[in-house]
Design goal:
Largest sheet: 7 strands, mixed
Number of helices: 11
Radius of gyration: 37 Å
Strand content: 35-45%
CATH class of the largest domain: Mainly Beta
Helix content: 25-40%
Distance between the termini: 93 Å
């Protein structure tokens, strides 16, 4: 028995040693992180914490005179171990907490703290804290007497305790120059949810989402000397589509506040008092943006670009044979309204057969603007041998930094075309599209020998009903086939007609997906799928490009097609309902199944109304 116990202890010791060796090799780089509130009041107590991922002594730092150390450091430790694919890793976290009190107003910086691990010094980042004048904490008279405050008294202070704003980074821009709109809320109350959220329509702007939050995170901010809990609701990039003064509609939020009220009842006081819930609402002021028109006269090669851009071009090869393909790639990179830039005007030699370019757009939108690249790929085919030149081409854009037009150019390109292999009996047929080389020649036929299949005199197949049937049938079928192909080619070339035909089919497919999500009780995804189906249907039905698809454009097209205002209102209500479900799901009372049914009925009515 003693031998077994001894063997067991040895095995445990070896296992522990192996774990220590493995974890030692998998430890992360030593780091120290600092955190503290961004804004505090004079006389307010707050915590300054340093988190280290190694066993070290307490951090060393110098505290400015603007703060008083009340206690600390308080030390807490946590350790995690995990095994992934047979490899064990561990993480250690030690948190040092200091309780400070703000003494002096102003913006103060706590210099980086330092810890020493294995002889190396590791520093944290500096912490900047804004200290504002402390507000006297006054009790409501009703609270001092142990009574519940009245609803009217509380609502009278809503403007000071809760408000929303739309912030724009610039209020004067050129047409096509993007601005960033940030929607934020500010509160000193305890918010527990949202009843109603109405976003601005941004009429006159092309809107793109930069940041949309599903759960609002509140952080401290100093507003006119008072500390508020501020939360980002949404952030958009707005691109003005016309000049003049454009107004951004108010942004409205209706929120639910939970407030704990103390009473004289000892039993209720023991359990924390009563909880009172009430609503607060606020709308942001109208924001006006002055949009200046682009200077006149505009260059003849102006393609609509506004921002900072660069043009590059290249050919796949400079020497080739007749009927071989050549690729000319034109790349436009930069920042601005790059999505709305038109194709450059390029003049090709008349002996080149040119196809419509393939356009590839890759643009990313951030708070700094839209940055990306557009690539045009032209496919050209020379039909005759010789030396050709694709002349230089240019395009102009409006530079927002210098407030002037800048010209970009590329080329020229020298192309040498040699005669390719070709039989004398073959000829090239060119047209709107490339076709294979066809053999339209034939060899001399010899006199027929063998059985001649002679007929008796007076017996003729010519001009008989069977003759005419056999003679005219192929011709009739050929004419019918020609008419059918022409109609098919015409329909395919009519992009508006093609999108109109496919609109109902694509929307039905999306609604099928929404129906499946309804059965799976995935409400959030149902609203998103219904909204996508609605806008995709209207975009295809009204022949509106995806880049220019917005409410104003859709409603304007519907009115031009004499769609009733009642039906337009139903479209707006369904869109508002689905968008509200994305940002304030608790505020939506309509069930997802009902929203799905409304969408199906609405698309049926739209299909009848829009011709």
């Amino acid at each position: 028995m003693m031998l077994i116990n001894r063997f067991y202890k040895i095995a445990v010791s070896l296992t522990f040693l192996a774990v220590c060796c493995c974890t030692a090799t998998l430890q992360a780089q030593t780091e120290i992180q600092a955190s503290a509130p961004r804004v505090v009041q004079t006389g307010e107590r707050f915590q300054l914490t340093y988190t280290v991922n190694e066993r070290t002594d307490a951090p060393e730092f110098t505290l400015p005179d603007a703060f008083r150390l009340l206690s600390g450091p308080g030390v807490s430790r946590s350790q995690q171990m995990q095994i992934i694919n047979g490899q064990m890793s561990s993480s250690l976290t030690i948190t040092y907490t200091y309780v400070l009190e703000a003494v002096t107003e102003g913006t103060h910086t706590i210099e980086p703290a330092t810890v020493v691990f294995e002889g190396k010094k590791v520093q944290s980042r500096a912490v900047t804290i804004e200290v504002v004048k402390g507000a006297a904490q006054q009790q409501q008279p009703a609270q001092r007497q142990g009574q519940q405050p009245s609803r009217s008294e509380k609502l009278a202070s809503n403007e000071d305790d809760f408000f929303v704003r739309v912030h724009v980074d610039r209020r004067s821009v050129y047409q096509g120059e993007a601005i960033v709109a940030t929607l934020k809320l500010y509160t000193t109350l305890n918010l527990s949810g949202f009843e109603k959220v109405e976003f601005p329509k941004f009429t006159g702007f092309f809107k793109e989402d930069i940041e949309t939050v599903t759960q609002i995170q509140l952080q401290r901010e100093n507003i006119n000397g008072r500390i508020y809990q501020a939360g980002l609701v949404a952030k958009y990039q707005l691109m003005p589509q016309k000049s003049g003064t454009i107004e951004i509609d108010p942004f409205t939020i209706e929120a639910i506040v939970t407030e704990r009220v103390r009473t004289n009842d000892p039993f209720e006081s023991f359990f924390g008092g009563n909880v009172r819930r009430f609503k607060v609402a606020n709308s942001s002021p109208v924001v006006r943006v002055e949009v200046k028109p682009l200077p006149e006269p505009r260059p003849s090669d102006f393609t609509g670009g506004v921002g900072q851009m660069r043009l590059d071009a290249s050919v796949s090869r400079n020497e080739l044979k007749t009927n071989d393909a050549l690729n000319l790639k034109v790349k436009l990179t930069g920042t601005g309204n790059i999505k709305f830039v038109d194709n450059p005007q390029i003049t090709f030699p008349t002996d080149f057969e040119v196809y419509d370019p393939k356009k590839d757009v890759n643009v990313k939108t951030t708070s700094q603007g839209s940055t990306g690249v557009i690539l045009w790929d032209y496919v050209v085919i020379p039909r005759h041998a010789g030396t050709y030149t694709i002349p230089a081409f240019s395009c102009s854009y409006f530079d927002t930094s210098s407030k002037s037009y800048k010209k970009l150019s590329a080329g020229p390109f020298e192309i040498t075309v040699e005669q390719g292999a070709q039989d004398a009996s073959q000829s090239i047929v060119t047209g709107p599209a490339r076709r294979d080389v066809r053999d339209i020649g034939s060899d001399i036929r010899f006199i027929q020998t063998g059985d001649l299949d002679l007929k008796y005199k007076g017996s003729y197949f010519f001009a008989t009903p069977l003759f005419w049937t056999i003679y005219l049938l192929p011709l009739s079928l050929f004419v019918i086939f020609l008419i059918f192909k022409r109609k098919q080619a015409h329909d395919r070339s009519d992009i508006v007609k093609v999108r109109n035909k496919r609109a109902a089919k694509l929307s039905r497919n999306r609604l099928k997906s929404a129906k499946k999500l309804v059965r799976d009780n995935k409400d959030a995804q149902v609203y998103d799928e219904v909204l996508r189906a609605l806008w995709q249907y209207l975009g295809d039905k009204l022949a509106i490009d995806q880049s220019r698809l917005n409410r104003e454009r859709v409603f304007e097209e519907m009115r031009e097609r004499e769609v009733s205002e009642e039906l337009i209102s139903k479209v707006a209500e369904l869109a508002d309902l689905c968008e509200m479900a994305r940002y304030a799901p608790t505020a939506v009372k309509t069930k997802s199944a009902e929203v799905y049914s409304q969408a199906v009925d609405l698309l049926v009515q739209l299909e009848r109304a829009i011709k």
